[in-house]
What does this fold into?
Amino acid sequence: MNNTSKTLSLDNVALATQVGVTLAELNLVENKAEILKREINGNIKALHHNKVKVGMYRKDGTGCAVATGFIDGCVAGGIKASTAQRVYLGTFKAAVASGKEVTDWNSSREKSKGGKGGKGKGKAVFTDLFIKAFNHEEGKSFEVLCQEIETRFQNDEGSIYDLFVSFLKMEGYEIK
It folds into this structure.
């Protein structure tokens, strides 16, 4: 074996060693991630069990204390407040309301998976669309939304229409 072959062989051994070291590090990080996911979902279930309602976040601190605490925690962990509010808060609210585990924190990514393409035939009247929302999960998620909007309306935080629009925008929907 000549010197070039020995050098290439040593370089390949070094690369293989680095792959092993990096794989071990990845394994540790993945294990840590699983532990953190279980902790997060356990805390979400506790909030649900305690019948916590996550309200509206406001930058000025006058919004829901739970929503503010969630955003503050995200910021303390290094997530931008705007990202925490726009991307993660809706998922957090839904998880606390349902008590279900979070599998994907980016709710807009979840909505884009497996969506139906194209437009339906004809025009649906509002009541046809409304009944689908009302009957979804036997009306439970719609009831939670209505209770939140009613509370915010009673607190003079806007008109019912504006509060629905605010909710839809917060969930990542574009309102035309």
